[in-house]
Amino acid sequence: MVNETLLHLHVLLSGSVGSSPRFYHLACICDKIIYMSLVLYRKYRPQTFSEIIGQEHIVQTLTNAICSGIISHAYLFAGPKGSGKTSMARLLAKAFNCFDRKKNEFEPCNKCFSCLEIMQGNSIDLIEIDAASHRGIDEVRELRDGIKFAPTKSTHKVFILDEAHQFSKDAANALLKTLEEPPSHAIFILATTEIHKMIPTIISRCQRFDFRKLTLLEIVKRLEIIIKKENVKIEKAALELIALNSGGSIRDGESLLDQVLSFKAGLNKKEIKAEDIKDLLGMVETGLISLFCDLIIEKKAAEAINFLNEITDRGLDFQEFSKALINYLRQALILRIADIPVDREDNPLITGLTKEELQKLQQQVSNFNEQEIRNILKLFIEAENKIKYSSIPQLPLELAIIESCEIT
Q1: Which neighbouring-strand residues pair with 76?
Q2: What is the CA radius of gyration of the chain?
Q3: What is 45-210's CATH topology?
Q4: Distance between CA atoms of 310 and 347, rounded to whole angstroms?
Protein backbone atom coordinates (compact mmCIF):
# COMPACT_ATOMS: atom_id res chain seq x y z
CA MET A 1 0.00 0.00 0.00
CA VAL A 2 2.86 2.36 0.89
CA ASN A 3 4.65 1.59 -2.39
CA GLU A 4 1.45 2.22 -4.39
CA THR A 5 0.94 5.59 -2.66
CA LEU A 6 4.54 6.59 -3.34
CA LEU A 7 4.21 5.49 -6.97
CA HIS A 8 1.07 7.61 -7.47
CA LEU A 9 2.84 10.56 -5.82
CA HIS A 10 5.86 10.01 -8.08
CA VAL A 11 3.66 10.09 -11.20
CA LEU A 12 1.94 13.30 -10.07
CA LEU A 13 5.26 14.97 -9.24
CA SER A 14 6.88 13.80 -12.46
CA GLY A 15 4.08 15.44 -14.40
CA SER A 16 4.80 18.70 -12.60
CA VAL A 17 8.59 18.68 -12.99
CA GLY A 18 8.54 21.45 -15.56
CA SER A 19 6.83 23.85 -13.20
CA SER A 20 9.31 23.67 -10.33
CA PRO A 21 12.67 22.06 -9.49
CA ARG A 22 11.19 21.17 -6.09
CA PHE A 23 8.83 18.73 -7.79
CA TYR A 24 11.78 17.06 -9.51
CA HIS A 25 13.62 16.75 -6.20
CA LEU A 26 10.57 15.21 -4.49
CA ALA A 27 10.05 12.81 -7.41
CA CYS A 28 13.66 11.63 -7.04
CA ILE A 29 13.14 11.06 -3.31
CA CYS A 30 10.01 8.99 -4.05
CA ASP A 31 12.00 6.96 -6.58
CA LYS A 32 14.71 6.25 -4.01
CA ILE A 33 12.24 5.20 -1.28
CA ILE A 34 10.36 2.90 -3.69
CA TYR A 35 13.65 1.33 -4.87
CA MET A 36 14.92 0.73 -1.33
CA SER A 37 11.66 -0.90 -0.22
CA LEU A 38 11.36 -3.30 -3.17
CA VAL A 39 11.86 -7.01 -2.62
CA LEU A 40 15.15 -8.23 -4.10
CA TYR A 41 13.73 -10.06 -7.13
CA ARG A 42 12.02 -6.82 -8.22
CA LYS A 43 14.84 -4.52 -7.13
CA TYR A 44 17.42 -6.45 -9.15
CA ARG A 45 15.28 -7.57 -12.08
CA PRO A 46 17.58 -7.62 -15.16
CA GLN A 47 17.40 -4.32 -17.06
CA THR A 48 19.77 -5.29 -19.88
CA PHE A 49 20.30 -8.50 -21.84
CA SER A 50 23.81 -8.81 -20.40
CA GLU A 51 22.28 -9.25 -16.93
CA ILE A 52 20.27 -12.32 -17.96
CA ILE A 53 21.85 -15.45 -16.46
CA GLY A 54 21.63 -18.98 -17.79
CA GLN A 55 19.64 -18.39 -21.00
CA GLU A 56 22.48 -17.48 -23.36
CA HIS A 57 21.00 -19.40 -26.30
CA ILE A 58 17.79 -17.34 -26.12
CA VAL A 59 19.58 -14.03 -25.55
CA GLN A 60 21.79 -14.65 -28.60
CA THR A 61 18.84 -15.35 -30.90
CA LEU A 62 16.69 -12.45 -29.70
CA THR A 63 19.48 -9.86 -29.71
CA ASN A 64 20.45 -10.87 -33.26
CA ALA A 65 16.83 -10.37 -34.31
CA ILE A 66 16.71 -6.94 -32.63
CA CYS A 67 19.92 -5.81 -34.35
CA SER A 68 18.69 -6.96 -37.75
CA GLY A 69 15.25 -5.41 -37.21
CA ILE A 70 13.47 -8.74 -37.72
CA ILE A 71 10.59 -8.60 -35.24
CA SER A 72 8.02 -11.37 -34.96
CA HIS A 73 4.41 -10.59 -34.12
CA ALA A 74 4.29 -13.35 -31.47
CA TYR A 75 6.79 -15.02 -29.13
CA LEU A 76 6.24 -17.98 -26.83
CA PHE A 77 8.47 -18.35 -23.77
CA ALA A 78 8.19 -21.78 -22.15
CA GLY A 79 10.02 -22.96 -19.06
CA PRO A 80 9.95 -23.50 -15.29
CA LYS A 81 8.95 -20.78 -12.85
CA GLY A 82 11.62 -18.26 -11.97
CA SER A 83 13.71 -18.94 -15.07
CA GLY A 84 13.48 -15.36 -16.41
CA LYS A 85 10.56 -15.49 -18.87
CA THR A 86 8.82 -12.30 -17.69
CA SER A 87 12.13 -10.44 -17.31
CA MET A 88 13.06 -11.37 -20.88
CA ALA A 89 9.63 -10.28 -22.12
CA ARG A 90 9.98 -6.84 -20.50
CA LEU A 91 13.49 -6.47 -21.90
CA LEU A 92 12.15 -7.21 -25.38
CA ALA A 93 9.41 -4.61 -24.91
CA LYS A 94 12.02 -2.03 -23.87
CA ALA A 95 14.32 -2.84 -26.79
CA PHE A 96 11.47 -2.67 -29.34
CA ASN A 97 10.24 0.70 -28.05
CA CYS A 98 13.52 2.35 -27.01
CA PHE A 99 13.90 5.73 -28.74
CA ASP A 100 17.63 6.09 -28.12
CA ARG A 101 18.78 2.58 -29.03
CA LYS A 102 21.48 2.90 -31.66
CA LYS A 103 21.38 1.15 -35.00
CA ASN A 104 22.81 -2.40 -34.96
CA GLU A 105 22.70 -2.42 -31.15
CA PHE A 106 20.29 -4.41 -29.02
CA GLU A 107 20.54 -3.06 -25.47
CA PRO A 108 17.81 -0.58 -24.45
CA CYS A 109 19.16 2.77 -23.24
CA ASN A 110 17.18 2.71 -19.94
CA LYS A 111 17.12 6.52 -20.11
CA CYS A 112 14.46 7.51 -22.64
CA PHE A 113 10.89 8.03 -21.39
CA SER A 114 9.73 4.76 -22.96
CA CYS A 115 12.37 2.71 -21.11
CA LEU A 116 11.76 4.58 -17.86
CA GLU A 117 7.99 4.07 -18.04
CA ILE A 118 8.43 0.33 -18.56
CA MET A 119 10.95 0.13 -15.70
CA GLN A 120 8.57 2.03 -13.41
CA GLY A 121 5.65 -0.17 -14.45
CA ASN A 122 3.42 2.61 -15.76
CA SER A 123 3.75 2.31 -19.55
CA ILE A 124 0.33 2.32 -21.20
CA ASP A 125 1.80 0.64 -24.29
CA LEU A 126 2.95 -2.41 -22.33
CA ILE A 127 -0.02 -4.49 -21.24
CA GLU A 128 0.59 -7.43 -18.91
CA ILE A 129 -2.22 -9.94 -18.42
CA ASP A 130 -2.23 -12.85 -16.01
CA ALA A 131 -4.19 -15.59 -17.73
CA ALA A 132 -4.68 -17.39 -14.41
CA SER A 133 -7.09 -14.66 -13.29
CA HIS A 134 -8.20 -13.37 -16.74
CA ARG A 135 -8.79 -16.65 -18.54
CA GLY A 136 -12.27 -16.18 -20.00
CA ILE A 137 -13.39 -15.31 -23.52
CA ASP A 138 -14.72 -11.91 -22.39
CA GLU A 139 -11.24 -10.84 -21.28
CA VAL A 140 -9.74 -11.95 -24.62
CA ARG A 141 -12.44 -10.04 -26.51
CA GLU A 142 -11.55 -6.91 -24.55
CA LEU A 143 -7.93 -7.56 -25.46
CA ARG A 144 -8.82 -7.86 -29.15
CA ASP A 145 -10.73 -4.57 -29.00
CA GLY A 146 -7.74 -2.85 -27.37
CA ILE A 147 -5.35 -4.13 -30.02
CA LYS A 148 -7.10 -2.09 -32.70
CA PHE A 149 -5.85 1.16 -31.17
CA ALA A 150 -2.35 2.31 -32.10
CA PRO A 151 0.26 2.77 -29.35
CA THR A 152 -0.01 6.10 -27.56
CA LYS A 153 3.66 6.99 -27.13
CA SER A 154 5.69 4.04 -28.38
CA THR A 155 6.44 2.34 -31.68
CA HIS A 156 4.80 -0.93 -30.68
CA LYS A 157 2.07 -2.01 -28.34
CA VAL A 158 3.38 -5.05 -26.46
CA PHE A 159 1.11 -7.60 -24.79
CA ILE A 160 2.67 -9.97 -22.24
CA LEU A 161 0.32 -12.88 -21.51
CA ASP A 162 1.60 -14.72 -18.44
CA GLU A 163 0.59 -18.33 -17.70
CA ALA A 164 -0.93 -18.47 -21.18
CA HIS A 165 -1.84 -22.15 -20.79
CA GLN A 166 -4.54 -21.07 -18.30
CA PHE A 167 -6.79 -19.57 -20.98
CA SER A 168 -10.06 -21.44 -21.41
CA LYS A 169 -10.62 -23.30 -24.69
CA ASP A 170 -12.93 -20.57 -26.05
CA ALA A 171 -10.52 -17.84 -24.96
CA ALA A 172 -7.57 -19.64 -26.57
CA ASN A 173 -9.48 -19.97 -29.85
CA ALA A 174 -10.39 -16.27 -29.74
CA LEU A 175 -6.74 -15.41 -29.12
CA LEU A 176 -5.75 -17.62 -32.04
CA LYS A 177 -7.74 -15.45 -34.45
CA THR A 178 -5.85 -12.39 -33.21
CA LEU A 179 -2.49 -14.12 -33.59
CA GLU A 180 -3.33 -15.07 -37.18
CA GLU A 181 -3.85 -11.48 -38.35
CA PRO A 182 -2.50 -9.01 -35.78
CA PRO A 183 -2.11 -5.31 -36.58
CA SER A 184 1.44 -4.28 -37.48
CA HIS A 185 1.94 -2.32 -34.25
CA ALA A 186 1.07 -5.24 -31.93
CA ILE A 187 3.54 -7.73 -30.47
CA PHE A 188 2.48 -10.66 -28.31
CA ILE A 189 4.74 -12.40 -25.81
CA LEU A 190 3.18 -15.49 -24.27
CA ALA A 191 4.78 -17.08 -21.21
CA THR A 192 3.94 -20.50 -19.82
CA THR A 193 5.24 -23.03 -17.32
CA GLU A 194 3.17 -25.84 -18.89
CA ILE A 195 3.71 -25.82 -22.64
CA HIS A 196 1.94 -29.19 -23.03
CA LYS A 197 -1.36 -27.51 -22.08
CA MET A 198 -1.13 -24.96 -24.91
CA ILE A 199 -3.17 -25.69 -28.02
CA PRO A 200 -0.87 -26.64 -30.96
CA THR A 201 -2.32 -23.99 -33.28
CA ILE A 202 -1.22 -21.19 -30.94
CA ILE A 203 2.26 -22.70 -30.54
CA SER A 204 2.65 -22.93 -34.33
CA ARG A 205 1.94 -19.19 -34.75
CA CYS A 206 4.64 -18.09 -32.30
CA GLN A 207 8.41 -18.11 -32.23
CA ARG A 208 9.05 -20.58 -29.43
CA PHE A 209 11.89 -20.28 -26.91
CA ASP A 210 12.48 -22.89 -24.22
CA PHE A 211 13.93 -21.59 -20.96
CA ARG A 212 15.85 -24.02 -18.79
CA LYS A 213 16.25 -24.34 -15.04
CA LEU A 214 19.28 -22.49 -13.75
CA THR A 215 22.18 -24.48 -12.34
CA LEU A 216 23.25 -24.09 -8.74
CA LEU A 217 26.45 -22.27 -9.79
CA GLU A 218 24.47 -19.79 -11.93
CA ILE A 219 22.15 -18.98 -9.03
CA VAL A 220 25.10 -18.57 -6.65
CA LYS A 221 26.77 -16.22 -9.15
CA ARG A 222 23.62 -14.08 -9.28
CA LEU A 223 23.29 -14.02 -5.48
CA GLU A 224 26.95 -12.96 -5.16
CA ILE A 225 26.23 -9.95 -7.40
CA ILE A 226 23.25 -8.97 -5.24
CA ILE A 227 24.99 -9.25 -1.85
CA LYS A 228 27.87 -7.18 -3.21
CA LYS A 229 25.41 -4.42 -4.17
CA GLU A 230 23.64 -4.76 -0.81
CA ASN A 231 27.04 -4.61 0.98
CA VAL A 232 26.33 -7.82 2.90
CA LYS A 233 28.80 -10.59 3.77
CA ILE A 234 27.56 -14.17 3.34
CA GLU A 235 29.94 -17.13 3.12
CA LYS A 236 29.82 -19.17 -0.08
CA ALA A 237 28.55 -22.33 1.66
CA ALA A 238 25.55 -20.29 2.87
CA LEU A 239 24.82 -19.01 -0.65
CA GLU A 240 25.03 -22.57 -1.96
CA LEU A 241 22.43 -23.68 0.60
CA ILE A 242 20.12 -20.89 -0.57
CA ALA A 243 20.63 -21.92 -4.20
CA LEU A 244 20.13 -25.58 -3.30
CA ASN A 245 16.72 -24.76 -1.80
CA SER A 246 15.61 -22.57 -4.71
CA GLY A 247 14.79 -25.49 -7.00
CA GLY A 248 16.56 -23.95 -10.01
CA SER A 249 14.48 -20.76 -9.78
CA ILE A 250 16.42 -17.50 -9.58
CA ARG A 251 13.31 -15.73 -8.28
CA ASP A 252 12.94 -18.23 -5.42
CA GLY A 253 16.65 -17.88 -4.69
CA GLU A 254 16.35 -14.09 -4.48
CA SER A 255 13.25 -14.39 -2.28
CA LEU A 256 15.14 -16.69 0.10
CA LEU A 257 18.05 -14.24 0.13
CA ASP A 258 15.58 -11.46 0.99
CA GLN A 259 14.40 -13.57 3.92
CA VAL A 260 18.01 -14.11 5.00
CA LEU A 261 18.76 -10.37 4.91
CA SER A 262 15.70 -9.69 7.08
CA PHE A 263 16.95 -12.41 9.43
CA LYS A 264 20.42 -10.82 9.55
CA ALA A 265 18.93 -7.47 10.57
CA GLY A 266 18.09 -9.03 13.95
CA LEU A 267 21.56 -10.51 14.44
CA ASN A 268 24.75 -8.88 15.59
CA LYS A 269 26.91 -10.61 12.99
CA LYS A 270 29.36 -9.34 10.40
CA GLU A 271 28.95 -12.40 8.18
CA ILE A 272 26.13 -14.90 7.68
CA LYS A 273 27.29 -18.51 7.96
CA ALA A 274 25.87 -21.74 6.57
CA GLU A 275 24.62 -22.62 10.08
CA ASP A 276 22.49 -19.45 10.10
CA ILE A 277 20.85 -20.49 6.82
CA LYS A 278 20.12 -23.94 8.19
CA ASP A 279 18.48 -22.41 11.28
CA LEU A 280 16.41 -20.02 9.19
CA LEU A 281 15.25 -22.60 6.65
CA GLY A 282 14.75 -25.34 9.23
CA MET A 283 17.43 -27.49 7.61
CA VAL A 284 19.19 -30.38 9.31
CA GLU A 285 22.66 -29.62 10.68
CA THR A 286 25.42 -31.28 8.66
CA GLY A 287 27.09 -32.19 11.96
CA LEU A 288 24.08 -34.32 12.94
CA ILE A 289 24.15 -36.16 9.60
CA SER A 290 27.89 -36.72 10.00
CA LEU A 291 27.45 -38.21 13.50
CA PHE A 292 24.66 -40.44 12.21
CA CYS A 293 26.91 -41.72 9.40
CA ASP A 294 29.66 -42.46 11.94
CA LEU A 295 27.25 -44.82 13.72
CA ILE A 296 26.46 -46.55 10.40
CA ILE A 297 30.20 -46.95 9.71
CA GLU A 298 30.70 -48.46 13.17
CA LYS A 299 27.71 -50.81 12.57
CA LYS A 300 25.95 -49.50 15.68
CA ALA A 301 22.39 -49.96 14.44
CA ALA A 302 20.73 -49.68 17.87
CA GLU A 303 22.59 -46.44 18.67
CA ALA A 304 21.78 -45.01 15.23
CA ILE A 305 18.06 -45.74 15.76
CA ASN A 306 18.18 -44.13 19.23
CA PHE A 307 20.05 -41.14 17.74
CA LEU A 308 17.37 -40.77 15.05
CA ASN A 309 14.53 -40.84 17.58
CA GLU A 310 16.29 -38.44 19.96
CA ILE A 311 16.78 -35.72 17.34
CA THR A 312 13.23 -36.12 16.01
CA ASP A 313 11.88 -35.90 19.58
CA ARG A 314 13.44 -32.42 19.60
CA GLY A 315 11.20 -31.42 16.69
CA LEU A 316 13.18 -32.52 13.64
CA ASP A 317 11.03 -33.80 10.78
CA PHE A 318 11.77 -37.34 9.50
CA GLN A 319 11.27 -36.23 5.89
CA GLU A 320 13.70 -33.32 6.30
CA PHE A 321 16.25 -35.59 7.96
CA SER A 322 16.07 -38.17 5.17
CA LYS A 323 16.30 -35.43 2.53
CA ALA A 324 19.48 -34.03 4.14
CA LEU A 325 20.93 -37.53 4.58
CA ILE A 326 20.32 -38.42 0.93
CA ASN A 327 22.07 -35.23 -0.20
CA TYR A 328 25.00 -36.02 2.11
CA LEU A 329 25.26 -39.60 0.78
CA ARG A 330 25.04 -38.30 -2.79
CA GLN A 331 28.06 -36.10 -2.16
CA ALA A 332 29.83 -39.07 -0.56
CA LEU A 333 29.23 -41.06 -3.75
CA ILE A 334 30.60 -38.20 -5.87
CA LEU A 335 33.74 -38.07 -3.72
CA ARG A 336 34.14 -41.84 -4.06
CA ILE A 337 33.90 -41.97 -7.85
CA ALA A 338 35.61 -38.65 -8.68
CA ASP A 339 39.04 -37.32 -7.86
CA ILE A 340 37.92 -34.06 -6.25
CA PRO A 341 40.34 -31.81 -4.32
CA VAL A 342 39.52 -30.64 -0.80
CA ASP A 343 39.64 -26.99 -1.91
CA ARG A 344 35.95 -26.03 -2.12
CA GLU A 345 36.51 -23.38 -4.78
CA ASP A 346 37.34 -26.17 -7.25
CA ASN A 347 34.35 -28.27 -6.23
CA PRO A 348 31.26 -27.46 -8.34
CA LEU A 349 29.67 -30.81 -7.42
CA ILE A 350 30.13 -30.56 -3.65
CA THR A 351 27.95 -27.78 -2.27
CA GLY A 352 26.73 -26.43 1.05
CA LEU A 353 29.68 -27.84 3.03
CA THR A 354 32.42 -25.96 4.85
CA LYS A 355 36.02 -27.05 4.27
CA GLU A 356 36.01 -28.87 7.64
CA GLU A 357 32.75 -30.68 6.83
CA LEU A 358 34.15 -31.75 3.46
CA GLN A 359 37.30 -33.12 5.11
CA LYS A 360 35.16 -35.11 7.56
CA LEU A 361 33.07 -36.50 4.69
CA GLN A 362 36.23 -37.60 2.87
CA GLN A 363 37.37 -39.48 5.98
CA GLN A 364 34.00 -41.26 6.15
CA VAL A 365 34.06 -42.10 2.44
CA SER A 366 37.35 -43.97 2.88
CA ASN A 367 35.42 -46.62 4.87
CA PHE A 368 33.20 -47.55 1.90
CA ASN A 369 33.64 -48.73 -1.66
CA GLU A 370 31.49 -47.31 -4.46
CA GLN A 371 29.00 -50.20 -4.48
CA GLU A 372 28.40 -49.94 -0.71
CA ILE A 373 27.63 -46.22 -0.91
CA ARG A 374 25.26 -46.81 -3.83
CA ASN A 375 23.42 -49.53 -1.92
CA ILE A 376 23.09 -47.40 1.23
CA LEU A 377 21.90 -44.43 -0.85
CA LYS A 378 19.23 -46.58 -2.52
CA LEU A 379 18.03 -47.83 0.89
CA PHE A 380 17.46 -44.32 2.22
CA ILE A 381 15.86 -43.09 -1.03
CA GLU A 382 13.35 -45.94 -0.74
CA ALA A 383 12.84 -45.15 2.96
CA GLU A 384 12.10 -41.49 2.20
CA ASN A 385 9.43 -42.48 -0.34
CA LYS A 386 7.78 -44.77 2.22
CA ILE A 387 7.72 -42.34 5.17
CA LYS A 388 4.50 -40.54 4.17
CA TYR A 389 2.65 -43.85 3.70
CA SER A 390 3.85 -45.47 6.93
CA SER A 391 1.67 -45.53 10.06
CA ILE A 392 4.94 -45.28 12.02
CA PRO A 393 6.89 -42.51 10.22
CA GLN A 394 10.33 -43.51 11.52
CA LEU A 395 9.96 -47.22 10.69
CA PRO A 396 11.21 -47.03 7.05
CA LEU A 397 14.32 -45.16 8.24
CA GLU A 398 14.90 -47.63 11.06
CA LEU A 399 14.76 -50.57 8.64
CA ALA A 400 17.16 -48.73 6.31
CA ILE A 401 19.55 -48.22 9.25
CA ILE A 402 19.57 -51.94 10.07
CA GLU A 403 20.17 -52.95 6.44
CA SER A 404 22.89 -50.28 6.01
CA CYS A 405 24.80 -51.63 9.00
CA GLU A 406 24.68 -55.08 7.41
CA ILE A 407 26.19 -53.72 4.17
CA THR A 408 29.30 -52.12 5.70
Answers
A1: 190, 208
A2: 26
A3: Rossmann fold (3.40.50)
A4: 33
